[in-house]
Amino acid sequence: AMEPAEVSRLHALAYLQCALGFLGSLLLRQAASSYGRYASPGAAFGVPARAAWALQELPSLAVPLWVCARTAAERLRRAPNRILLAMFLLHYAQRSLIFPFLIRGGKPMPLYTCVLAFTFCVYNGYLQSRYLSQYAVYADDWVTDPRFLVGFCLWLIGMLINIHSDHILRNLRKPGETGYKIPRGGLFEYVTAANYFGEVVEWCGYGLASWSIQGGAFALFTFCILLTRAQQHHRWYLEKFEDYPKFRKIIIPFLF
Ligand SMILES: NC(=O)c1ccc[n+]([C@@H]2O[C@H](COP(=O)([O-])OP(=O)(O)OC[C@H]3O[C@@H](n4cnc5c(N)ncnc54)[C@H](OP(=O)(O)O)[C@@H]3O)[C@@H](O)[C@H]2O)c1
């Protein structure tokens, strides 16, 4: 069983993550979002896009595996804990092992952004996996609870929207191209940042299914960071393309 000191540490880490999300969307606005189309071309210490994405997201996969391998991971004998951890790992297997190699003409990632993302993935990988493997206690029938079922479906739908939308963005470029076009099709008909919308839905689903401060904190953090960047993208498209569809919202279809 876990020591009370570690239980309070996992709670403190979750609250800190919420604070970092708000802080990130205010103070770190520049640093957190200065990659891709906003990276200054001459910037020193750019990490090639593929290497950057693979390396910076890998801790969200490696840290949980390390956490579970080196301890008894008592709670992983229970189905809810195992499914929730698998949801987290599946996303990051996609993000760090597949997504980087599909990128077309990605701009080098500023080293600073890459280090921030890496640090976040260590932090969050530890928080989610340690919580689920050592601490979280669910009733035996949690997997049939409406919160789990709805959360799981949102997670799955969100992930599919995210992957599909990133696929649409990628295919705007022919091999070798690096420019930007107006995205068409899928949820891009409704929002500028369809890929971010998917990612937010995905982690909100995970937060709901895990019914924990730790899961909720990650969803909130994601929302704060991606909302900021979605607003930036939206302004950028409106400036760059005169014929940008006026009907499109920023990140949430029909709403915002
Ligand atoms: N959980 C989190 O907190 C978090 C934080 C950040 C990102 N993410 C996820 O990571 C993934 C990538 O994020 P991102 O910020 O790099 O997304 P992004 O800015 O939308 O760019 C995604 C990719 O598509 C290209 N692209 C975007 N718009 C384009 C256009 N109009 N025409 C042609 N190509 C275009 C980009 O090229 P360029 O690189 O050349 O611009 C980039 O390779 C997303 O799935 C996002 O949800 C998650």
- Secondary-structure element order, as H and E? HHEHHHEHHHH
Uncertain parts: none
Supply the number of structural domains: 1
Average pLDDT: 93
Structural class: mainly alpha
| Proportion of strand residues | under 5%
Count of helix runs: 9
Q: What ions, cofactors and ligands are bound? A: NADP nicotinamide-adenine-dinucleotide phosphate
Order of strands across the main sheet: 1-2
Round the Cα radius of gyration to an integer and report it: 19 Å
Q: How helix-rich are the residues, as a percent range?
A: 55-70%
Keywords: Differentiation, Endoplasmic reticulum, Lipid metabolism, Membrane, Microsome, NADP, Oxidoreductase, Sexual differentiation, Transmembrane, Transmembrane helix
Domain 3-oxo-5-alpha-steroid 4-dehydrogenase C-terminal: 108-256
GO molecular function, one term: 3-oxo-5-alpha-steroid 4-dehydrogenase activity
Function: Converts testosterone into 5-alpha-dihydrotestosterone and progesterone or corticosterone into their corresponding 5-alpha-3-oxosteroids. It plays a central role in sexual differentiation and androgen physiology.
